[in-house]
Amino acid sequence: MLKVSAAVSGYGRVDVLRSVSMEVQAGAIIGILGANGAGKTTLLQTISGLVPLRRGSIAFDGKEIGGLRAEKIVAKGLVHVPQGRMPFPEMSVLENLEMGGFLVRDRRRFQQELEKVYAIFPILRERRTQSAAYLSGGEQQMLAIGRALMASPKFLTLDEPSLGLGPRIFDDILAIIQTINREGISIVIAEQNARKVFRISHYCYVIENGAIALEGPSQQLARDERVRKVYLGSHE
Length: 236
Known about the structure:
The chain is α/β, with parallel strands linked by helices.
C-alpha cells in the first residue's frame, strides 16, 4: 500500500533522512521507533508532503506521491496527525472537525463522517461548541485524530501521540487506534514509547540518525537484545 524507497529529505542544506526504505501493507499497524531527533517526524512529514522529498521515491497504492503537495496526498487518502496535536485553539471542536473535512463537498457525506467521529469519540460531541484551547491533552489528541478521520482516510500517520499524555490516557488512545485499524485503515505510528508500540503494532522500524537501523515483526524485534537495552530499558 505504501512503499518508501531510498528516501532522502531534510531542511535547508541538511539531509535528515538518509536513504530510508520501508513498506506498509494494507491493514497493518507499523511502528516507527527512535530517540528524539532520530528522524521520525521528518519521515512522516516527508510521506505526507509537508517536507519535500529530495531523492528516492514514495508510492501509495502503486502511484508515486513523492513531490506532491500535502493536500493532494490527503485527497488520495493518506492523512497525517501531527506531533503536538496542533488544534486551531480559537475555533470550536466542531469547527476543527469541519477543517478536517474541507475536501468533503457533499453535505450528506460530511454529516456521515462527522457521526462516525462522534461514535468513536463521544466526548467530542459533548464538547462540540467548546473552544479547542480548553480541552485536556487527551481530548486534544482525540480531536486531532477525529479531524484526520473527517477526510475519510485509507491511511493514517500519527506522530508521537503520547506527547504530554499520562500512561492511562495514552492507553486509551492506543485502544482507539486499534479500533480505527480494525475498520480497515492502515496506520503508521512514530513513537518513543517502544514498549506500547510493540504491543499494538505488527511490524516496526527503528530509525537512528536518519537511517533505518533495525526492522522486523514487532514481537520479534521486542526480544532483540539491542532494542531491549536501548529502547525498553532492559539489561537482561
